[in-house]
Write the structure tokens for this entry.
Amino acid sequence: MSATIIDGKDLSLALKDEMKVQIAQLEAKYGRKPCLSVIIVGEDPASQSYVRGKIKAAAYVGMDSRLIELPASVSQDELLSLIRDLNADGGVDGILVQLPLPKHIDSNLVIEAIAPAKDVDGFHPVNVANLWLGLDCMVPCTPKGVMKMLERAGIEVAGKTAVVVGRSNIVGKPVAKLLLDANATVILAHSRTKDLKAMTLQADILVAATGAIGLIKGDMVKPGAAVIDVGIGRGADGKLHGDVDFESACERAAYITPVPGGVGPMTITMLMANTIECFIKRMHAC
Ligand code: L34
């Protein structure tokens, strides 16, 4: 058996082409385009690559963007005051501070400084609370991308057993909540889970978000499962790999996402969707 590959790049392109049309209509209606501000602190090559992807995608869909590059030495106060300026700037719809931040900066304080209505990452405590309460909120980009991939691949979630491996605030916890909202029975496994293989073998839908390259081997995949690989890292071979051992997992999965070209591009595409959403909500609020 060989799995059907869910191509995140292809799907992203299709979604971005739809957004291009939508943004042209929004501009005609409201007299301006959505505008995304991206702040990057320091020179981590992976972060720089992801941020470049975000700015490129914004240009592709025809929205405005501002890239603010700060040195790793920037003070926490300077960063907070920049965010306050962007909060007050009527021309800015979305604010994203790329993580991780240097150690001398408290990322929780930074996230809390972003106006919830401009929080395109959905990381602000108000958005997190509203997600868990089932209220209107900004949904974090990567979890939203995971759900979009399942939906577009025609994979039914209701009634299925979903196993999420990894409990981060950015991916594991929110994706578990979204799967629960879609009526999956959710197991949230993590680094202290006793028998991980026994858990993953139950998964009709397996979401791997640990950051441990190749952790999920083929023999941990339930035959016929949909495997969504959120992990991304550079292996000893210098190439990008996910949390899933792709070759062996392909033998058992019915559907699988590749790395690169899977969840990563979808994260960026959902950021575009969230920026459009913030824009529309702000236009309706005034
Ligand atoms: N604030 N920080 C904030 N928001 C986010 O949503 C992120 N994340 C994660 C890291 N920090 C963040 C991202 O943007 C991870 N992430 C991200 C975004 C895009 C890609 C990967 C991770 C991506 O485009 N990956 C490509 C390969 C890119 C390359 O060649 O380096 C892929 O095909 O998977």
Notes: The chain is about 45% helix and 15% strand.
